[in-house]
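queue> pop job 88
queue> type: inverse folding (structure -> sequence)
queue> payload:
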């Protein structure tokens, strides 16, 4: 798949998710879908980002929005991270980088 651009319709996709589920975009019709990408489970910045989504989940729910965190980590790592941080949303595992490439989120570090 080629990367998407602003204004493009998203192709349907599916990804393995915490809770032993498979999330399919087409199953989310009628809702807003928030996908946030992060580099690695249990790192300081990624933990803060997830906690912010967690702490504001009622606001997202009131807007009929579903939140999904996405990284290249394994489902096992995601399950531990989700449990430890009490995330009320699922984390999607993108180990083959399909979604990362679609959304063009992998960038070279410049530090």
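queue> result:
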């Amino acid at each position: 798949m080629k990367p998407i651009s602003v204004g493009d319709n998203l192709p349907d996709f599916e990804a393995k998710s915490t809770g032993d589920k498979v999330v399919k975009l087409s199953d989310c019709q009628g809702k807003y879908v928030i996908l946030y990408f992060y580099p690695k489970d249990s790192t300081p910045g990624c933990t803060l980002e997830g906690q912010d989504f967690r702490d504001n989940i009622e606001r997202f729910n009131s807007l009929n929005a579903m939140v999904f965190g996405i990284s290249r980590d394994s489902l096992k790592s995601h399950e531990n991270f989700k449990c430890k941080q009490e995330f009320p949303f699922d984390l999607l595992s993108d180990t083959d980088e399909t979604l990362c490439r679609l959304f063009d989120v992998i960038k070279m570090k410049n530090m």
